[in-house]
Amino acid sequence: MLKCRSVWKKLAPLARASSSVCRQNVRRTGLTNGRIPAHVPAAHMSTGPAGGGRENQLYILLVGATFLGGGVYAYRTVKGDQQRYQERIEEISSRPHRVAKQVPAAPIQSEPPAAEATEKETVPEPEPEAAPSPEEPSPPAPDTKVAAPSETTEPPPADEPVLEAPPEEAAEPPAAPVVEEEPSPPSEPPPAEPSPVELIEPPLAELAEAPPAELTEPSPAPVVESEPTAAAESPAAEPPESQPEVVAESGVDVVPASLKVPSHTPYLLIGGGTASFAAARSIRARDPGAKVLIVTDEPDLPYMRPPLSKELWFSDDPSVTETLRFKQWNGKERSIYFQPASFYIPPEELESAENGGVAVLTGKKVVHMDVRGNKVKLDDDTEISYDKCLIATGGMPRNLQVIERAGEEVMKKTTLFRKIEDFKSLDKVSRNINSITIIGGGFLGSELACALGRRSNEFGLEVIQMYPEKGNMGKVLPEYLSNWTTEKVKTEGVKVISEALVKSVTCKDDKLEIQLKDGRLVKTDHIVAAVGLEPNVDLAKSAGLEVDSDFGGYRVNAELQARSNIWVAGDAACFYDIRLGRRRVEHHDHAVVSGRLAGENMTGANKPYWHQSMFWSDLGPDVGYEAIGIVDSSLPTVGVFAKATAKDTPKAATEKSGTGIRSESETEDTATSPVASSTPAPAMVQHKDDYGKGVIFYLRDKVVVGIILWNVFNRMPIARKIIKDGEEHADLNEVAKLFNIHED
After folding, report:
1. Cα torsion at 559, 564, 567, 568 (round to 10°)?
2. What are phi and psi of 383, to 5 degrees?
3. 508 phi, psi to nearest 5 deg
4. pTM of the prediction?
5. Spatial CB neighbours of 249, under 8 Å, sequence gap ≥ 6
6. pLDDT tens digits for range 217-260
7. What's the angle, vertex CA 588, arms to CA 602 and CA 436, rounded to 5?
8. How far apart are CA 117 and CA 141, in angstroms?
9. Where are the beta strands (DSSP E) in 150-284?
10. Which of 26, 171, 217, 525 lies 20 to 30 Å from 157 when distance is taken between CA atoms?
C-alpha cells in the first residue's frame, strides 16, 4: 500500500495538469466559435482551432491509462502483501509443534541463565540472520542479564529463537555466547572477554573499602564509578568462570609492561603524579565512559609524595622499601599508591574498552607536542593523538651548581630527593654509612633531617643539616619561631649548621668535604640536596606554550587552560590568584585541587580556579603546622599562641579525623559563620620559649595574605575565608579567637 501511495503522489499532479488543460481548451474553443462569422464554411468548423478536440482525446487517454495502471499495480501489491502475511502467520503458528519435538532445550534454561540471556539478544531472528547480532555485544555481560527479564514482555517470536540450535547449546551452554560476543582476544576466548569489565569494576569496590586511598579526592568520583560495579557484581555469582581473580593478576603484570600503545585517546594526561590522578578521577566522575590515558616516565603507578619524607621513615617494618606501606599517625596502615594496579586497565585494551577506564603507560616520556595536529611523540618515536590533553609534568629537584661542577664522583654520593627510587636509595645508603648531610632548611630538608635523626641513635648515624638562613625554615617562619623550631630539630638528633653557604665540594679518601664560604669544613659520607624544585617545562618549546619568566611554569588562564584543548595543573602551572596575584604553588593540596578542576573543565565545566591551596609539614608526630596563602618571613607577622595540650599534635589530629593526610582538599568546607571561643585571649604574642600552639598572620598593606596554624588542625576553612574576604582587621587577637586556640 505504501508503494501505491507513492506512485499516486507522483502521478496526481500530472493528471490534474492534463485535466485543467482540457478544460481550458474546451472553454477557449467555445469562445472562439462564438466569435466566428456565420458565413464561415462548415468545413473549417470541423477542423477547429489549434488545441482542439484531438489533443483533448490524447490527454484523456493518458489520464485513463495512468489510473488503470496504478489500479492494477496497487491491486497486485496488496494481494502479494496479504499472501506474505498469511505465510508468516502460518509459520509462526507452526513453531510450537517444532519446539515440542526439541527435548534438549529444557536443560538449557535450568543450567546457565546468563547464556540464555546473551543468546536472546545475539540471535533476534529464527532464520540464520545472525548479522544484526554484532550490534548487541557492545553492552557487557551484566547488562545482558539485566535486560533478560524485559524480553518476556516481547511477542512470542522473541522468545523462540533461543531454542533454534539445541544440539550446540546443550553441548556448550556458557562458552558459546562468550565467544560470539568478543572474538578478538587471542588463545583464551572465554576468560578474556569479560576482562575489561572485571579489570575496572572490582578495584572500584576496593576503592570504597579504603577511603584514605582517595587522598584529597572527593567521594563522588568513586561513587559514580562504583554504581556499575554493583550492577556487575550482583549477577556475577551466576557464572563461576567469571569469578577467579586471574584478570586482576594480569592487570598487575600488563600495566607496567604494556606492549601496545593506543594510537588515539580522548583524554591524554602527561605526567603520573597527584595532579594527573586527580584529573583522571574527575573526568571519570563526570564522564563514566571516558577513556583516559596517563603517560609517565616513572616506572610506578600514580602515588602520593608526602609520605616519602614523612611517615615512611617512621615505619618499623624492615621491608617498607618493598611494600611501601606505612602506619599513619593515627595508627592505620595504608599504601603509598593511590590505587592498586587492578584499578587500571592495560593500555592496549583502552581503545576497545566498552565502559572506558584509566590506563597508565609507565616508563614513557613525551618529548614532542604537536598542538595543531593534536598529537604527541614519545621517546621511542611512538605517536599518540588526543582530543583533550592535560600537562601535569610537575618539577625536577634543583641541585647546587658547586655540586654539579664537582664531578661524577661527588654526584654519585649526592641524592636529589623526589621519587620512590630516591627514597629507596637514601634508605639503603643511610643504613650503610656513618655520616649524612642535608643541604637545605625548607620543608623537605627539615622533614628529612628529623626523619633521619631518629636513626642517629639506632644506627650510630651522624645527621647534619646546613642552610644559609639563621634558623630552620627561616624563609617561612618568623625569626622567633624559626629559632624554636631549630632547637626542636636538634632534639631529634640532628646537628644544625646555620648561615652556611657552600663554596665547594670535593671527594677525598672516599669522603666528601664541604667547604663553606666562612672557612668551615664539613666531612660527610653522603649529601642530600633539598634546595627547591624546578618546574618541568620541556614541552613548552615544541608546543609553543608560554612560560612565566618570574615564577616559572606554564602560564594558564583562570580555567587552567594554556590552549583551547590543553590544560596545565600541579607544580607546572603558573596561574592567576584573584586575591594574591599570579602564583605558582608546589604543594600537594594544590596538585589535587588544580588537577581535579582541570579534569572538570576538560569535560566542559568551565570553572575558574578560585581555591586557596594549603600545605602542611610535620617535624615528627608531635609538631606540625598547616599553612595557606603567602607565608614569607619577610612580611610583617602577628602571632597569637596558647598552651598546647595532648590533643594538639599531628598524631592526635589524625586519630580524631580518621584520615592519614590532614586537611586535604576536603577542607574546602565553607566557614560562613565560625563560632569564636568565649575564653578570654592572652596578650598578643608572648615571646616565650614554648610555642605549643597558635596562629601566625602574615600581613601585606595591613591585610592578611597568609596564615600558619601551628599545632592547630582542622581549622583551615576558617583561614581560607579570612584570606578570601581580604579585609583589614584592627585586632587580630579577636580574629585568632575564631580558631578556638584557647580552649582546652
Report:
1. -90
2. -110, 140
3. -135, 130
4. 0.63
5. none
6. 333 333 333 333 333 333 333 333 333 333 333 333 334 444 58
7. 140
8. 9
9. 264-270
10. 171
